[in-house]
Each structure stands twice: as C-alpha cells, then as structure tokens.
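Would you kindly consider the sequence and fold I have copied below?
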Amino acid sequence: MNTLSLTHPHPFRSAILAILFSIFALSHTASAADKRIGILVYDGVLTSDVTAPLEVFGIASRLSWFSDYQPVTISVQKQQTITTEEGLKIGVDYWIGDAPKLDALIVTSSYEMEPLISNTALIKFIQKTANHAQWVASNCSGAYLLAESGTLDGKRATTWAGGESDLQRRYPAVKVEHDRNVVIDGNFITSNGSLVSYQAALMLLKKMSSESKAKEVAETLQYQRFSTQPF
C-alpha cells in the first residue's frame, strides 16, 4: 500500500495542502471584510449619488488598510437589480427588509423624492440604522430622507444646490447651511450630490481612516485633475 511520506511530501499531498491553504485564505479574506458601508439604491436613483461612493470605497476596500470594509448596495424594495435615472443597472446586495448591520449609511437621491419620504419602512430603516452606525451621510436631496427620519434635528446640514430654503422650510429643526458643498456635523455628512458626491465620499473616507489614506484613493481617481476642492 502506498503511503505519503512526511519527510518528502508526495505531489498529491502537496496539491491537497495547496488547495486547503487557498480555501483558508479565501475564507479569511471574506471574514476580514466584516464592516459594511451601505449605499441606498432604488429605481430612479441618481447615478452619481451611487457610483461616486461605490468607486471611492471600492478602491479603498482593496487596500490593506481598509480591507475590513465592504461597500454594499441596499434597495428600498426587494429586487435583484435597480435602474438609475440615467439607465444604469446596478446589482443589489441587500434590501431594507434584511436590516443589514452597517457601519456607515449613505442615503441617495432622486428627482421624485415624495414616494421615498412617505415610505414608512424606509424612514424606520434610516432611523434604526442611524442609531448604531458610526457614520451617516447623504447626497443631494437624500438629506430630505434624513430630515424626515428626525436624525438631522438640531444638526447642520445641506442638500442640493438651490434646495436649501425648501429643506429649511419643510424641516425647521434642521440647521440648513447655504452655498456649502459638504457639511459635517458630528457623525453626519451631507452634500450637494452629483460630482460633489466624490468630494463627500473622500471626506467620509478621511474621517474613517486618515487624510493621507484618503489622498491615496484620490490620487488613484486622479481627483486633482478636475477639482481643487478640499476633502
């Protein structure tokens, strides 16, 4: 009967060990990414509100210093994909009914916010998530959803450029700031959205890591080629 030598490993034994090591490495990598940055998605969401943070945090999560974080998409309805306002189809990782545990939540916007604002399940999801997440952010009119949930009461915030007065009128408990790309108050970050979504995502990344690490991601994006806005 053939036996495997412990002194001189048999080729088959070496192959088995290699497979086991690969499986261990993959499982270790999967378990390492145990922190989630959730990005709210739904049919009609504005593309850049989603793709900007997905790109920023997607790049960062592939670097050793941020590998324990994973950006994920969370849909308002239970569906496998959503279609943005501009026609881009994006896969869905979770939906709000899953109640995934998040370390950061990024609330996005649409041209038609009223159905979202009146969605009780969505507002409750935002309220519950904001209670335990380390960071909560919004792009563009996503600030209306945070304001509707009451999580912006007493906080400084902004929304889409030109929409500040309406946000203040509808939610007088919010300290709305005008002509500001991004506003940070405690662990809340609100922004104008669109291209500013990149600036906001980099600012959030800086808060979650460091300025030098955020600059590393910004350089990968060639952020400085089109914007001198600080982050």
